């Protein structure tokens, strides 16, 4: 069944000029880009997005990084989109990511790891709503 997920091309990848190559990987893997935009978010907005990680030791670093430059939030659609995007992204730490994954190709470290992807249906719904209004999702 067709499913939507939420993704972000993170500031490190945008800064290095990898946004186009990452989008190409995503489209090659069969995802339809339902919506996409380029935005810069504040630290407070990053904290709201990552609220589930508030107690983690890297929360400050993560939210500092995510507000350090432009990002491309996007909504993607395909069968099994949530799990398939996670597979295409690769492990959080690029040193452990499989060959051929986006993080293996484009990520530099566990923090600056090129791409975000929702990990479950409820998080996808929250994350889509955090960045996109209904009229942007036709
Ligand atoms: P993901 O689902 O693979 O993105 O990983 P998590 O949900 O565990 O963590 C969310 C994000 O926090 C990761 O994608 C990283 O950008 C960041 N992160 C995770 N672990 C660390 C860490 O040990 N140090 C830093 N600086 N950032 C981290």
Question: Can you offer a commentary on this structure?
Answer:
The chain has one domain: Alpha-Beta Plaits (2-Layer Sandwich). The chain has 7 helices and 4 strands; from the N terminus they run βααβααβααβα. It has a 4-stranded antiparallel beta sheet with strand order 2-3-1-4, sandwiched between helices. It is globular. It starts with a strand and ends in a 7-residue tail after the last helix. The model has no long low-confidence stretch (mean pLDDT 98). The structure holds guanosine-5'-diphosphate. The site of guanosine-5'-diphosphate has 9 residues, from helix 4. The site of guanosine-5'-diphosphate (GDP) has 9 residues, from helix 4.
Largest sheet: 4 strands, antiparallel
CATH superfamily: Nucleoside diphosphate kinase-like domain
- The gyration radius over C-alpha positions equals 14 Å
Neighbour order of strands in the largest sheet:
2-3-1-4
Measured as a percent range, the helix fraction is 25-40%
Order of helices and strands: EHHEHHEHHEH
Explain briefly what this protein structure is:
With 138 residues, this protein is an alpha+beta fold. Helices cover 40% and strands 17% of the residues. Helix 3 (43-49) packs across helix 4.
Spell out the key features of this protein.
four-stranded antiparallel β-sheet, binds guanosine-5'-diphosphate, 138 residues, alpha+beta, Alpha-Beta Plaits, globular
Helix and strand topology:
Layout: E1 2-9, H1 11-15, H2 19-28, E2 32-36, H3 43-49, H4 59-66, E3 72-79, H5 81-89, H6 102-106, E4 115-117, H7 121-131
Antiparallel strand pairs: 1-3, 1-4, 2-3
Helix pairs in contact: 3-4
Bound molecules: guanosine-5'-diphosphate (GDP).
